[in-house]
Records
---
Amino acid sequence: MGAHVFSGGFADPAVDAARAFRTVMSVLARPGEVQNLAGGEPPQGLSCAAGTLLLTLCDPETGIFLAPDVDRAEVRDWLTFHTNAPFVSAEEADFAVGGWYELMPLTQYRTGTAEYPDQSATLIVESSVQGAKNAILQGPGINERAEMALPDIARFQHNATLYPQGLDFFFTYGSQIYALPRSTHVTPKG
Amino acid sequence: MSDYNFAYLDEQTKRMIRRAILKGLAIPGYQVPFASREMPMPYGWGTGGVQVSAATLTPEDTLKVIDQGADDTTNAVSIRKFFENTAGIVTTEETTKASVIQTRHRIPETDLNEDQILVYQVPIPEPLRFLEPRETETRKMHSLQEYGLMHVKLYEDISQHGAIATSYAYPVKVAGRYVMDPSPIPKFDNPKLTMAAIQLFGAGREQRIYALPPYTEVVSLDFDDYPFEASKAAHTCDLCGAEHSYLDEVILDDEGNRMFVCSDTDFCAKRQSAGHKGRLAGEVA
C-alpha cells in the first residue's frame, strides 16, 4: 500500500463533510444545477467530485460497486481506509461508481420496492469530457425547465417511468457535480 | 464547543440522516425510514427537526428557529441555544438573514429564497395514521396510491360541518404521487409549500424523514364543488395592521376582550418598526 492511501481524506472531517453534503443536497434538489465539490483527494482513477461524494455518504453501512474502469487496487485501498465501506456486486450496491458504459446494464441495480422505493441504488457516473446540454428536464426541483448534458436519453426516460422506484444519478467531471433524481422527466433537446 | 462533535451528532449518524434526506428529495413526499437517535430533549420538542438540522448545518450557516411563528418561545430559544453551543453557529430572528430555518408548525410570512432551507418538526408524519393505525397497511396504501380513505374523511367533514373543517395538517398531494402530511401547519400556509427553498421534514419519535425540492408541485386535496380554501381569522393584526398574515387570538381579560396578532413575530416586528399600526398598537406592549 502506498502512502497516498492514507492521505486525501477530509482535513476536518465533520465540517468538510457538512459543506460537501450541502453541495450534494443542492444539486440533487435542483436537477440541472452544476456545482463544485471538493475536499477529498482520491487516487488516480476517481475524480475529485466522485471521491468527495463517497467520503461524504459512505461508511460500513453502504455497499459500493466499482465498475471495471475504476476497480483498481489504489481506489479500493483508499475507499477502505477512509470509509470502511464494503465492496459488493452491482445487484447489492447502494452506490455504484464508474463510466457510463462501464456501469451498464442499468437493470442490474436495485430500484427499491413499491413499499420501500428508497431501498435503491445511487449511481455516480464519471465522465472525462463535458458534453453539450442535450436534455430538457422538468419535475420537482426545477422552476419550469432546466437543461443538462446526459450520456443517454432513453434510459433516463425509462428510469422515470419506474417512479417512485428507480435509480438516482450523480454525474461527476473533475471537481464538478450535477444530479438527476428519478423524479425528473427527460426529453431530448431540439 | 470542543466538547461536542460539530453539530452534536456523530459522523456516522449524520451520514445516515444525509442519505435519508437525499432519498427524500429524490422521491418527494415519500417517508424515508431512518434510525432516529435519542436527543437531549424530549420527543415532541423537535427531535426530528433537530437531527435534520444537525445533518444539514455548516459553520457558515445562520440559523433561525420558530415555534408557531414565534422566535421567543421556550422551544425556539432552547433549540437556538443548542446549536449555538454544539455547532458554534450564528443565530438570528430575522427570516431574511437566516440560511437554515427550523420551524414548528408555521411557514414564515416572508417568501423564502433559493439559498434557504426550511426544516420542519413533524409529530405524526403519516397522513393516513388516524384513518389506518397499522404501518403495514399504510405502506401498502401509499404503494398502491390508495388514497380514497382520505377523500372520505374530507367528505365526512363536509357532511357534518358543511365545509372541510380540517384546519391544520391539511393533506396534500406531492408531484402527483404521494399524499403527505405537511406537519401541523395551518392550512393558511399550504399554498406556500410550493416555494424556492428546499423543505425537509423530520419526525424523530416516528423515525421518518421526507422532503420537498424547490418548486415541487404541492396540491391540497379537495373537491370540485368544495375547493380548498386557505383560511385565517377574519381580522387584521392589532399590532401591525397586517391584513394577509396568519393570526393568533389572544384573550385579554375575563370580559370577553381579545386581540388578534400576527403569529410570525419577526414579520410583525418588522412591520411595526416600518411604521405600520394596528388597532391596539401602543396600548399593549
---
Amino acid sequence: MTLLFDTQFLFVRALKKLVRNPILIFFSLFQPIIFLVLFTQLFSKFSQVPGLFPSGITYLEFATPGILMQNAFSSALQSGTSIVEDLNSGFLQKMLVTQVSRPAILIGRLATDAFRVTVQSAIILGLAYLLGFNMATGIAGILLTLFIIAFFGFAWSGISLTLGLRTKSAETVFGIGAFLTFPLLFISTALVPGSAMPTWMQDVSSVNPISFATTAVRDLALPNAFSLSAEVTSLAVIALIALVTMSVTVYLFRKVVS
Amino acid sequence: MPDIISVSDLVEVYADGTKAVDGISFKVNEGEFFGFLGPNGAGKSTTIKILTTLLRKTSGSVSVAGLDLDKEAKEIRKIIGVQSQETSVDPELTGRENIILLGHLQQMKGKELEERVDKLLEVVGLKDAADKRAGRYSGGMKKRLDLASTLVHKPKVLFLDEPTTGLDPQSRATVWDYLEELNKKDGITIFLTTQYLEEADRLCQRLCIIDAGKIVAEGSPVGLKKDIGADAITITVQDKKSAGDKVATKAAAKELLSKIPAVIKTVDTEEGLTIYVKNGGLFVPELVRAFDKTDIELVSINISTPSLDDVFLKHTGKRIRTEELVKEVTTGRFGSRRR
C-alpha cells in the first residue's frame, strides 16, 4: 500500500515539475519532428525504388513507426538527468531519510518518464496523421502502439536512471544517451528496410532493440502487414529486453540507495 | 530512557581505505541540544549520514530512541528529521507543496497534514510566500522551508548539519531562535554540527569535538572551557630588522616561548601564535620582556579568556573560521593604537 501511495506522490510531483517546465517536452520533440517533416520529404522518392521498400506505401508511412521509436529511445535515455538533479541538490537524500518506500522512488520516476514519452509520441503521431500517415489497424493499433512505446521507454529509462545514480553527472547521462541514439537508430530498420542495407548492417540491425520495437509498430501501421504471431514475437522480444534492463536497474538502484 | 542516541565504537572505512570515522563512542540525552564539532573532513557529516540511515557503517553499534540502526532503520526514519548541509527544496514546487510532499512521504494525510503545514509555514514565516514556487525564494527562505519540511512529522530527534551556513546574519539569528524554541518548548533533541562556535557555546548543553575521525573532547561548553585552565594570548610577530622569513621568525618565537615556565602550551595559528598561560594579565609583562632581548618584535597582543574556539584549537590544533579571527586581530590592533 505504501509503495502504491508513495509512487503516486512521486509521480504527481514529477508531473507537476514537467507541466511547470513544458519547454523540456518541446526540446525533446524538436528532433523527431525535424525527422518527421524533413526526412520524409527528403526520402519521399526512395520508397518508390522497386524491391527495397514494401510496395505501395509512402516513405512517411514507412518511417513514422521508426521515428516514434527513436523518440522513445532517446527520451528514455535522458531520463537519468532528473535523478542526478535530485541527487546533487540533496533532495534524494532528503527523501531517503523519510519512511518512503524505496522502490517507489524508482517506479515513480519510471512511470513519469513512460508517461512523458507517451505524450510526446501522441503529439508526433498526431502530426504524422496531418502529413498523411495512417494506422492500418485503426484505433486499436494506435493504443497498442502507445503501449509499446511506453513499455519500451520504461525499459530504457531504467538504464539511464542507474547511469545517473552511478555517475552523478547529468552531462554524462546526456552524452551517453546521444552517443548511443544515433548509431543504434541508423543501424536499425527504423528509417530503411533491412533489405536496403549492406550485409554487416543487416546483421547488427537484426539484433538491434530499436528494430524489434519498430517492427512491432510497423506491422500495426502498414496495410496488410499485421499477423498475430509476428506481433506476439515482437512484443515478447521487447518484454525480454525490458526484463534485462529492469534487472540491471533494480540491482544498481539497490546498491546506491541501500 | 535517558539517552536517545547511543553510539559505540563506530567505524566507517570508505571503499578507498580512508578511515573517516575511527571508533567513536558517545551518547546524547533525550531533550538535549547536542553539538558535534570538528574541522572540515573530521568525520562530522559521515557520522550524521550513518546516524540518519543514509550510509552503512563499517562496524560498531548505534541506537536511536532505543531502536537498533541495523534492524530498525525504517522505524528510526519515522522519528528523525534531517536537514543536510545543502538546502534541498524542490524549486518547481511551491513552499506548501514541498512540505506536503514530505508529509506524504512520512505517511501523513488529510486534515492533520493540512493543519500541520499551515502551522509550520506560519512558524517559519513563509505564510505569505507559501504558494510561490520555492525556486523564487531567497536563500534564507529556502533554508527555512527546508527546515519546516523536515519537521512536518514532529520528529523526536532533529539532525542539523551546518543549518545556517550561507545565510545572512539576520536569517541566521531567526533560524537559531527557532531551533532554541523547538528544543526548549517541544523538547526535541537536537544534534547539531556547526561552524558558528559562539552559537554552539550559547545553545548546546553538551559538545563533542571530533578530529581526524576520533573524539578528542567531550563535555559542556562551560566545562570544556574550564578544562583549558588558562587564558589564551594570541600574538603576531615579525623580525625587527627586516621583513624576513615569517616562518622562521614564528619558529624562533615559539622556541623562545617554550623556555618560559609559565607557558602551558603554544599553538601555531595562521595569523601568529596562541599561548596558553594560567593568568594572562600577569604574564604579559614577562612576555614583553622576553621578546625585548631578541630580534623578534611583538606586533600585537590579544588576551582572551578561553572561548570555545580556544577549546577547539587546543584539541584539534586548528581554528574553525580563520576569517573571523583575522578580523578580531585587526580590530585589536586598531583599538590599541587609539588608546
---
Amino acid sequence: MKQSELYKTKVCIADKHFIHRLGVKTILSVIGIEPDLYEADTFISTMSCLKDVEGIKFAVVAQDILDPDMNESILKLKAINQDIKLLVVCDDCCKCQTNALFILEEDTRQQVLEKFQSFFYDDNEENTESNSDLLSEREVDVLKAVALGYSNKEIAEKLFISINTVISHRKNITEKLGIKTIAGLTVYAVMNDLIKPENVKG
Amino acid sequence: MIQEYKMNNNLPFTPKTKMADVIHLDYRLIPIIGRFGIDFGFSNKTVKEVCDDYKINVCFFLEIINSYHNHEYFPHAELQNFKASLIVDYLSNTHAYYLNVKVPEIEGYIAQIKKEVSIENLKNIELLSNFFSEYKAELVNHLNREDTLVFPYISFLEETLKHRNFTANVVHKIKEESIEHYARHHENMELKLSDLKNLIIRHLPPIVCKEICQKLLTELFRLEADLEDHSRIEDKVLVPKVMLLEQQILEASETE
C-alpha cells in the first residue's frame, strides 16, 4: 500500500501523555501514513507548532490540552493556521462540528480507524476535485485489490476498513470510471499500470 | 387467435405501410428485417404483401419492428399470444446473426486496429481484444445453451400440449427443469459490453486509426441495443409464455 504523496505529510500530535501520542502514531502507521511528526504536550506548544512548521496541515489534538471551552480553543488554533485540519480526541462533542472532526469515547476500534482514514484521505479527494474522473488514493487501493481478484472481505481486512466502506468505494469507482465488471476494472488497472497482469488471481 | 389479432392502428408500421418506407423511416431495422429472411427489392409492396410472399406472420413481424423502433412500445401481452415456436424461431435467427455477422465484424475491426496502432497503444488494444474474446466466449456459451437446451425444451412443451401426451416423464421434466430455473440464470450479457464501450470512450489513450475505432464503437453500440431488445423479448415474452405452457401441461396432466 503506497501513499507516496502522504509520506511528506506533516502532522502535529498534541497530547499531554506520551503514551497517548504513541497510540496516535500507531494508528497512523496502521492506516498507512508515515508523516513527519511534530509532538506537542501543551496548548502553547501546539500553537507554536501550527504557527512555525511550514506546510503543516493536520493536527490530532487531545481534549486535555484544550481549554475547558473547547470551542474557543479550536477557533484559536484555526486562527493561527487557516489550513489546519483538526482531529480532536474528546469525551464529548462540542458545538463547532465544522471546524474539526471528533473521536469520541464511545467510538470502537473500527470507527476510530475509519475516522482517521477519512480525516487524512478526504483531504486528498478535495485536492483532486478539479478532475473528478480521477480516483482518490484510497479508491486506487481498493481498485487494485478488486482488479487482482480479492473479495470485499479480503479487501476490508487488507486495508483495515469495514466491508461497507469497501462497498462504498467500489460504488464510487464504478461511477467514476463507468466500468461495472471485475474483468473491466482489471483491464483498466492494467492499462494504467496499477497492477501487473501476472499477479491477477486465477 | 392469430386470425382475430387486431393491430393497433396508431403504430407507425401497419400491414399497409410500404416495406420500403419501413427502412426509410428507421434504418436500424435493416438487420431485423434481414433476420426474417426478407431480401431487398420490395418495389411498391406493402408489409403484408412482402410477409405473405415469405410466409411470415405479418402481425408478429409488425410487433417486432414496432417495438424495436420505439422502445416505449412493448406489447408483451400481444407478443405472448403468438406461438412459442414463432418467437423461438425469431430468437434463434437473432442468435445466428450475432454469432455469424456481428461478432466477426467487431473482431475484424479490433484486428485491424491491432495492425495499425502505435507501439505504445498496442498493449491497450491487446487488453481490449482479450476482454472482447472473454465476452465472446460467454456470449457463445449463453446462446448455445439456449439453442441446444432451452429452445428445444420449449418446442417439446408445445408439441406435448398439442398432442396431449402428458406422460409422467413430461411432468417430471417440467418440475425438474422448469423455465423459471433458466430465467434465474439468465445473467445480464450487456454489462461487459458496456464496460468495453467505456474503456474505449473514456480510458483508451488517443489512437492513430481513428476511423476504425469509431466504427468499432458504433458496432458495439448497435450490438448492445440489439441484445437489449433480444433479452427483453426473452425475459418479458418468452419466459412468461413458457411458464404458462408448463402450467397448462401440469394442470391437464392432473385432470387426465
---
Amino acid sequence: MSYLRGIAAIYWKDVLLEFRTRQSIGTMLVFCLTIVVIFNFVFEPGSEAVREVAPGILWSSFAFAGILGINRSFSFEIDRGGLQGLLLCPVERSTIYFAKVLGNLTLMLLVELVTLPIFAILYNLPTQINLPGLALALVLGTLGFAAVGSLLSALSANTRAREILLPVLLFPVSVPVLIAMVKSTGPLLAGRPFGEVAGWLRLLLGFDLLFLAISSIMFPYVVEE
Amino acid sequence: MSKLGFLFTAYLLIWIVLAGYLLSLFTRQRRIDRELLNLQEQLKRRS
Amino acid sequence: MRNAEARTRIFDGALWAVTSLAIAAALYAVFLYAPTERTMGDVQRIFYFHVASAWVAFLAFFVVFLASVLYLATRNLQHDLIAASSAEIGVLFTTLVLITGPLWAKPVWNTYWTWDPRLTTTLVLWLIYIAYLMLRAFAGEEEKTARFAAVFGIIGFLDVPIVYFSIRLWRTLHPKPVIGGSEGSGLHPTMLITLLVSLIAFALLYATLLRLRVRLERARREVRRARLALNA
C-alpha cells in the first residue's frame, strides 16, 4: 500500500510542477501539430493514399512529440539536483520509475487527446471512428512507449550527450510497440469493429507488461549512486 | 551486373570491410600505446 | 612475468595461424568444393559467408548480454571490457550481413531489399547495437559507462526476439508475394559441410578480433587512468 502511495506522491509532484510551469505540454502540443502539418505536404491534395498512411503519420507525430516530454522527465531532475532528493526518499527505487511512466503517459495522452480531432479534420478521416476501441489502443500503445522511454530517459539524461541520445536508444528498442500501435489504430480509425484488432491489442498489452517488468527491474541499476 | 558479378562484389566487399576493421584496430592500438608511453614518462618525471 | 608474455605471444600466433587456415579452407570449400545450386546458380555461394556472419554476429551480441549480466552481478570491469569489445565486432559482422544480403537478393529476387521479418530484424538489431556503442561513447566515467551499457545491453538483447516476433506477425497478417527463403530445408550434405567450415572460420575470426579489441580497450582504459593521475 505504501508502495502505491509512494508512486502517487512522486507522480503528484510532477503533475503540480508541470501544471505550474507548463513547460513540456505546450512544446509537445505545438511540435505534434507541426509534424501533422508537415506530413501533409507529402501528399497530392485530395489523394486517397492519405487514409492508408494516416495511422503511421499519427503515431510518428505522437512518438516524436512524446520523446520531448520523456526526455525532460529526467533531465530536469538532474539539472537542479532533484534526482538526489528523489533517491533519498524512503521508497523503493522502482517507485520512481513507475511514477515517471505514469507522468509521461499522462502528458502524451493529453497531447493525443488534443491532436486527434484536429488530425481527423485536417486529413478528412471518415466520421465513423471506433472511439472506445481507439481510446484503448492509444492508452495501451502510449503505455508501452512510455515504459521503455522512461527507463532510457533516465539513462540518457545521465550521460554527456543528454537529450540527443534518447531517440537513438528508444526508437529501435520500441519497434514492437510501434508496429502493434500502428496496426491496431488503422482499422479503428476506419471505424472497423473492435474484434478485428483484438489480437493486436492483446499483443500490445503483453508488450506493455513485458517492458514494464524488464524496465522496473533494470531501473535501480541506472540510478544507483 | 551479371550474376557472377554480384558474387564477387559480395566477397570483395567482405574482405575490404574486414581488412579496414583490422587496419583500424592496429592504428588505434599503435596510437594508444604511444600515448600511454608518453603519459607514463610524464608521470615518472613528475614523481 | 616474461614467461607469461611469451606464452600469450605464442597463443596469439597460433590463433592467427589457425584462423587463417580456417578461412583459406572455407574459401576453398565455398568456391571449389560446394556444388553449384540448381535454381540460383553460382550466386548462391554468397549464402555461406552471409549466414556465417549472421550467426557469428548473434553470438557476439549474446556475449554482450552475458557479459552485461555478469558485470551487474559482480561489478568486475573485466566483463565490461568484453562487452564493449564484443558489441563492436558484432556490429562489424552485422554490417557484413547487411552488405551481402542485398547483393544476394538482387540477382535472385530481383530486388535489393524487402521488408521481410529476418531482414528487418537484422536492420533493427544493427541500429540497437550502434545505439549501444554511442551510449558507451557518451556516458562519462568508466564505472557509469559500464553500468549504463550493461543495462542497455540486456534490454537490447531481450528486445531482439520480441522485434522478430512482432515483425513476423506484421508480415503474415499483411500478406505479400511470397519470397522463398532457401536456407535450412533440404541442404545438400556438401553444402552443409561448406556452411559448417565457413561458420568455424568466422567464429575463429571473431575470437581473434575479440582478443585484439580487448587488448585495445584495456590500453585505452590505462591511458584514461594515467591521464586522471596526471591531472590529479
